[in-house]
Amino acid sequence: MTVVVALLGLVFLIVIHELGHMLTAKAFGVRVPEFGIGFGPAIFKKKFGGTVYSLRIILLGGFAKMAGMEDIGSVAQQKGELGPDTYPAQAAWKRALIIFAGPGVNIVACALILAGVFMFSGGVDVKAQVDEVVPNTFAAEAGVEPGDKLVGLDGTRVNDWQSFQLAIAEKKPGENVTLAVNRSGERMTFDGNLSENPQAPERALVGVRPVTEKVSYGPLESVVRGVQQTGSFAVLYADGIYQLVTGQMDFFDNVSGPVGIVGASSELVSQGVYIRFLAIISLILGIMNLLPILPLDGGHLAFIAAEKIIGRPVSQETMGKIAFLGIAMVLTLMLFATYADISKIIEGQPFIPQ
């Protein structure tokens, strides 16, 4: 049952993505002959309002088929011979909005889902105050006590738990530091060497756990926090892509395909924390589709930009060659990711790191 719920969540993200394309296209007067979810043979078809809605057997994607989409870069487009209700006949800015609407909806959906989580489930306020000292760590050996308020690290002011974590992230295990705390109104400092994080040996560890408080948020504050967290996740994801490309992160351990996503989603459904994960997947879907690679949405946006620069649409022949390379890249990535997912299943490794 958890797998079904996880799969339905992914289908929902695909549906809203393609709806973004279709509704924006129709708003600009572009015909959309078919709106489909999945690939392969259709198991359901229904025509409504000039559009055939179909559900296909392989639920790994979707499409909003727009009139004239296959004529982009054609002689007919350049001569203006296509009908006014076709995609290529639209102004460049309209086509850009139609393309951007898909990933844009996914990014907005992430913020709205997170806003809903904040509004209905509240949040946790993590304070820069010690709740527990971990034995056999720098903090325990230096004499830090529960109740101490963290105020500085090596001269860097600590205002909250996040700034404390950022300060620690710049340090290495074994590095000598000076930790400043406020204990009952008195400032105290502790010198010593940072411990090694047992779960990530390359990371430094102070050895304190923070005081946390359950908090509730109103509608407006929930939306603000949803947008802020979406921005934070986007920055982290972009940094993750950079680290994968530069080899700083292991591909096998940090990339998942459809099998891994459904597997991880299923685990999180059973743990009751799937909604937040769904929001992150929605954001990833939006960002991935904005990469300037055909057949992704970002590739189409890149060609629209190229059209404005050179003053004419890029030829179908050129687009075809670049699209072939892009499809090969995407399929290769998917194959490697699926291989990694299946290898984890065979080796008994969890999709979500413990």
Word description of this protein:
α3 (92-121) packs antiparallel against α10 (297-310). The protein has 11 helices and 10 strands. By secondary structure, the protein is of the alpha+beta class. The chain has 2 domains: 2-31 and 66-117 and 251-347, no CATH class; 124-215, Pdz3 Domain (Roll). The two termini are 23 Å apart. The mean pLDDT is 84. The longest helix is centred in the last third of the chain and has 32 residues, at 316-347. The strands form 4 sheets. It has a 4-stranded antiparallel beta sheet. Strands 1-2 form a two-stranded antiparallel ribbon. A two-stranded antiparallel sheet has the order 3-10.
Describe the structure in brief:
Helices cover 51% and strands 23% of the residues.
Shape summary: elongated
Q: SSE string, helix = H, strand = E? A: HEEHHEHEEHEEEEEHHHHHH
Residues in helix, % = 40-55%
Report mean pLDDT, rounded to a whole number. 84
**Weakly predicted, low-confidence segments:** none
Cα distance spanning the termini: 23 Å
Biggest sheet, strands in spatial order? 5-4-6-7
Strand content is 15-25%
Over all CA atoms, what is the radius of gyration?
25 Å
What is the strand tally?
10
Structural domains: how many: 2
Summarize the main sheet: 4 strands, antiparallel
What count of helical segments does DSSP give? 11
Structural class: alpha+beta
